[in-house]
């Protein structure tokens, strides 16, 4: 199936929870897609490379049926092996230049997103690297990463001001993603602050009705 990767999609961005029940996970992904999720990040730290590839390919197939982009967390090799739409990297996952070199060697062109935590200097570096999106967080306390640094919502406005001042063309500017403890109660405040996309784990996949939650979060855009 072809990649959906000309531009980062924006909107609701789901991140897979660490569940051991694979069929439950795939069902949940489809429910979120039905509700309007635009991007899914595959983040499974406990699986072997072979297990992850098999499951990731199934998840990507579901996502693409619903026109939802499929990203891989951290692993460049997995992203290339399953021909994902994009990859998300943190500060310890190598440089954007190294990532682009690896993609070029495989004849692939992955969308690239980077974690900037709560640091404006990392955002400026990401902008300079011409990434497709940069993510700030944790915006709220998170069950998934309770020790994550706290990032203020003001970072979105600060980044948009920086982009305006740098005269970057609108089609070159990265999307801004908010992450960390986002749920139905606080999602609107993140979008109002300037986020183009909200990355949600527990607030989406641990909800009683995943499809309805995805519909509500998507309706905020």
Automatic annotation (TrEMBL):
InterPro entries documented for this protein: Aldolase_TIM, ThiamineP_synth_sf, ThiamineP_synth_TenI, TMP_synthase
A GO cellular-component term linked to this record: cytoplasm
Residues annotated as binding 4-amino-2-methyl-5-(diphosphooxymethyl)pyrimidine: 41-45, 73, 115, 145
Transferase is among the record's keywords: yes
Pfam family for this entry, one: TMP-TENI
Keywords on record: Magnesium, Metal-binding, Thiamine biosynthesis, Transferase
Residue positions binding Mg(2+): 74, 93
Residue intervals of the Thiamine phosphate synthase/TenI domain: 12-204
Top enzyme class: transferase
GO biological process terms, semicolon-separated: thiamine biosynthetic process; thiamine diphosphate biosynthetic process
Enzyme Commission designation: 2.5.1.3
Cofactor binding note of this UniProt entry: Binds 1 Mg(2+) ion per subunit.
Catalytic activity annotation: 4-methyl-5-(2-phosphooxyethyl)-thiazole + 4-amino-2-methyl-5-(diphosphooxymethyl)pyrimidine + H(+) = thiamine phosphate + diphosphate; 2-(2-carboxy-4-methylthiazol-5-yl)ethyl phosphate + 4-amino-2-methyl-5-(diphosphooxymethyl)pyrimidine + 2 H(+) = thiamine phosphate + CO2 + diphosphate; 2-[(2R,5Z)-2-carboxy-4-methylthiazol-5(2H)-ylidene]ethyl phosphate + 4-amino-2-methyl-5-(diphosphooxymethyl)pyrimidine + 2 H(+) = thiamine phosphate + CO2 + diphosphate
Pathway note: Cofactor biosynthesis; thiamine diphosphate biosynthesis; thiamine phosphate from 4-amino-2-methyl-5-diphosphomethylpyrimidine and 4-methyl-5-(2-phosphoethyl)-thiazole: step 1/1
GO molecular function: magnesium ion binding; thiamine-phosphate diphosphorylase activity
Binding site for 2-[(2R,5Z)-2-carboxy-4-methylthiazol-5(2H)-ylidene]ethyl phosphate: 181, 201-202
Cofactors, names only: Mg(2+)
Stated role: Condenses 4-methyl-5-(beta-hydroxyethyl)thiazole monophosphate (THZ-P) and 2-methyl-4-amino-5-hydroxymethyl pyrimidine pyrophosphate (HMP-PP) to form thiamine monophosphate (TMP).
NCBIfam families, per the entry: thiE
Protein family according to the UniProt entry: Belongs to the thiamine-phosphate synthase family.
Protein name: Thiamine-phosphate synthase
Originating organism: Oligella ureolytica
Gene behind the chain: thiE
């Amino acid at each position: 199936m072809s990649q959906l990767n000309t531009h980062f999609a924006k909107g609701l961005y789901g991140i897979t929870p660490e569940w051991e029940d694979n069929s439950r996970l795939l069902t949940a992904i489809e429910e979120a897609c039905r509700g309007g999720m635009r991007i899914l990040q595959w983040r499974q730290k406990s699986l072997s490379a072979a297990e992850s590839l098999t499951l990731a390919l199934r998840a990507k197939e579901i996502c693409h049926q619903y026109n939802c982009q499929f990203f891989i967390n951290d692993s460049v090799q997995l992203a290339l092996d399953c021909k994902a739409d994009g990859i998300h990297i943190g500060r310890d996952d190598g440089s954007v230049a190294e990532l682009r070199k690896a993609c070029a060697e495989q004849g692939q062109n992955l969308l690239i997103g980077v974690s900037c935590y709560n640091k404006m200097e990392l955002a400026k570096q990401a902008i300079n690297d011409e990434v497709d999106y940069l993510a700030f967080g944790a915006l709220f306390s998170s069950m998934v990463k309770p020790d994550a640094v706290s990032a203020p919502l003001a970072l979105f406005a600060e980044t948009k001001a920086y982009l305006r001042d740098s005269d970057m063309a609108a089609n070159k500017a990265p999307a801004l993603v908010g992450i960390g403890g986002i749920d139905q109660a606080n999602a609107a405040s993140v979008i109002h602050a300037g986020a183009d996309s909200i990355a949600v784990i527990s607030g989406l996949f641990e909800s009683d009705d995943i499809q309805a939650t995805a519909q509500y979060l998507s309706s905020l855009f």
